[in-house]
Write a structure and sequence with these properties.
The structure holds two protein chains of two kinds.
Chain A (H helix, E strand, L loop, with lengths): L2 H25 L7 H16 L13 H23 L4 H21 L9 E2 L6 H20 L1 H11 L1 H6 L4 H27 L1 E2 L6 H14 L6 H23 L1 H9 L1 H15 L7 H19 L1
Antiparallel strand pairs in A: 1-2
Helix pairs in contact in A: 1-5, 1-8, 1-9, 1-10, 2-3, 2-4, 2-8, 3-8, 6-8, 9-10, 10-11, 10-12
Chain B lengths: L3 E12 L2 E12 L3 E5 L6 H8 L7 E6 L2 E2 L5 H7 L1 E3 L12 H8 L7 H4 L10 H12 L15 H13 L5 E5 L7 H16 L3 E5 L3 H7 L2 E6 L2 E6 L1 H4 L3 H8 L14
Parallel strand pairs in B: 3-8, 3-9, 6-7, 7-8
Antiparallel strand pairs in B: 1-2, 1-4, 4-5, 9-10
Helix pairs in contact in B: 3-5, 3-6, 6-7
Classes of the chains: A mainly alpha, B alpha/beta.
Chain lengths: ~300, ~260
């Protein structure tokens, strides 16, 4: 496999994991713009736990099989604690609250000497592309399973109508806290894998732009089904690259301009998707149509 | 009344300075089909909201099958045995028909193992089978996988009844189940409600359609401006002067029955 393509697939895996972590709260009606915060927590926790105590800036020297799960638990614990005040807010206020949380994390990490402060820190053990891909598939499968459970049904009901969900016995608060916490754990896992794949973590890389893009993958992919984040992450990971390849393929002055203006094209595509598919690319109705067509086509083909 | 499944005692509720429910007391007999009627703004839906815990009660007591449910949280009332439908359709628009019905089962599926059971992955599980059977019984089996937002009004209205029914309540509270239905749909609804009642579920129905009430219910409670003004059989209700006055205003020269005024 070409190095360029593998590099792109690594980004796709990480983006997919982040997207599922933000999707779970979104599926229960909560917008989390704090992805960068949980990525930072996961990445730094894994790096610090993994680095040997003699290294600079130090650590615990745990192997990767321990540092990654511990980082996930750490992100989940922080997610659980902050979900209590954050879930009191709604809509755009929740977006702002989660954004503020991510800024607090970033501000703290940049000033903590024992994790390298502004210089960042290395993470020794390496996760290769295969490992990353396997874990990504597991995350997608886990989220797909979770959405198919009664808990998933409760999450989607809370998204649609909290008060009716309550009247049918759904514990709305517990459902929201659980979705937010599991989501935080998954985003933290993405952060830990980032650290162990690139072997260096730097808080400046995990900025609000990243949080915005991840939330965009989820919202534009669609929050109604477990396929949305995968489609959204794939779409947005590939589009800028596709435009770049397209520019090279066209060549000449126009091709060069296409590459230079690819972010403009990217922005226009985002706006168009919001207009054309306001509920996301993948919706329940879309899947229903696809499967009905297939079912109708099958008996016809058999004749 | 000897055996009441629901006893409401001196219920009071005011919003701001407005007393919307004023000392309302009545019993709903076990296994009965009882109607709660009254002119617009009489407080019928408010009674439902107080019973199901949407609003807290100012004063009074509600006892469901011997258990005082006055102050338990809304989410636990369905476990206590009370479920409802809504005046305006409140199905989950992004869920399929079967999933909406499975939400109705939520109160019966307790414990972590039940919460993590993959309903959507295993097509032949007991919950989905039960939901499909309930839909089939209600004559709604043609639309199991469809997202409810795409279905016609009359169908959605009946899915709401099925969703409330699969909670296996002791009492089913139906808020204007026939509103907006055509005569054929209304008849199908009557049939469904009788089936549910025959299996032992008590019905308390808020309804404007007096013909519907007369043919379905054995007992009628009439509210006006938050006060109970009548309690009796559907035949008596037409002869009651207070009810006539509530619906038609004061007119001593009109000997017609007030029945169709609603």
């Amino acid at each position: 496999m070409g190095g360029e393509i593998e590099g792109l697939l690594v980004i796709l895996c990480l983006n997919t994991i982040y997207a599922y972590g933000i999707f779970l709260p979104a599926a229960s009606g909560q917008l989390n713009l704090g992805a960068a915060g949980f990525i930072t927590l996961g990445a730094y926790a894994a790096a610090w736990l993994n680095m040997s105590p003699d290294s600079e800036p130090g650590g615990l020297g745990l192997p990767m099989v321990l540092s990654i799960p511990s980082a996930v638990l750490f992100a989940a614990a922080v997610g659980f604690v902050i979900s209590v005040p954050i879930l009191r807010t709604r809509g755009v206020y929740m977006v702002l609250a989660t954004f503020a949380f991510a800024e607090v994390v970033s501000g703290l990490v940049i000033n903590l000497e024992f994790v390298g402060a502004a210089a960042g820190m290395p993470a020794e053990d390496h996760v290769d592309f295969t490992g990353l891909l396997i874990i990504t598939i597991c995350v997608v499968a886990f989220c797909y399973y979770l959405m198919s459970t009664r808990f998933g049904l409760a999450m989607r009901s809370v998204h649609d109508d909290e008060s009716v969900a309550t009247l049918f016995g759904v514990n709305v608060r517990a459902t929201r806290v659980a979705a937010f916490t599991i989501g935080a754990a998954i985003v933290g896992l993405g952060g830990a894998l980032y650290g162990h794949h690139f072997n260096y973590v730097e808080a400046q890389g995990f900025n609000v732009l990243l949080s915005i893009f991840i939330l965009l993958y989820v919202l534009l992919g669609g929050t109604q089904t477990a396929w949305g984040p995968l489609v959204g992450a794939a779409f947005f990971t590939f589009i800028p690259e596709t435009i770049r390849w397209l520019g090279r393929w066209v060549g000449g002055e126009f091709g060069k301009e296409l590459i230079e203006y690819r972010l403009v094209a990217f922005g226009i595509i985002i706006v168009m998707m919001m207009v054309l598919r306001p509920e996301g690319v993948v919706t329940r109705t879309l899947l229903e149509r696809v499967f009905t067509l297939r079912r109708r086509a099958a008996p016809a083909a058999a004749e | 009344m000897s055996d009441a499944v629901l006893t409401i005692t001196e219920l009071n509720k005011s919003f701001g300075g407005l007393q919307v429910i004023d000392d309302v007391s009545f019993d709903v007999a076990r296994g009965s089909r009882t109607a709660l009627i009254g002119p617009n703004g009489a407080g019928k839906t408010t009674v439902f909201n107080l019973l199901t815990g949407v609003y807290p009660i100012d004063d009074g007591r509600t006892v469901l099958d011997g258990v005082d449910v006055t102050n338990i949280p809304a989410k636990d009332r369905v476990i206590a045995g009370m479920s409802r439908s809504f005046q305006n359709i409140r199905l989950m628009p992004h869920l399929s028909t079967v999933e909406n019905v499975m939400l109705g089962q939520h109160a019966r599926a307790r414990g972590l193992a039940q919460q993590l059971f993959p309903l959507g992955l295993l097509r032949r599980n007991r919950w989905a089978e039960e939901a499909r059977a309930a839909l089939e019984q209600a004559g709604l089996d043609t639309y199991p996988g469809q997202v409810v937002a795409d279905l016609p009004y009359g169908i959605q209205k009946r899915i709401e009844v099925v969703r409330a029914m699969v909670a296996n309540p002791k009492i089913l509270l139906l808020d204007e189940p026939a509103a907006g239905l055509n005569s054929e749909e209304t008849e199908e609804l009557q049939l469904l409600l009788r089936q549910i009642n025959d299996r032992g579920t008590t019905l308390l129905v808020v309804e404007h359609d007096m013909h519907f009430v007369r043919t379905l219910c054995q007992q009628v409670v009439v509210l006006n401006f938050g006060k109970k003004i009548f309690e009796g059989t559907p035949d008596e209700v037409h002869r009651d002067p207070a009810v006539k006055q509530a619906y038609l205003g004061t007119d001593s020269t009109a000997p017609e029955e007030a029945g169709n005024a609603a």
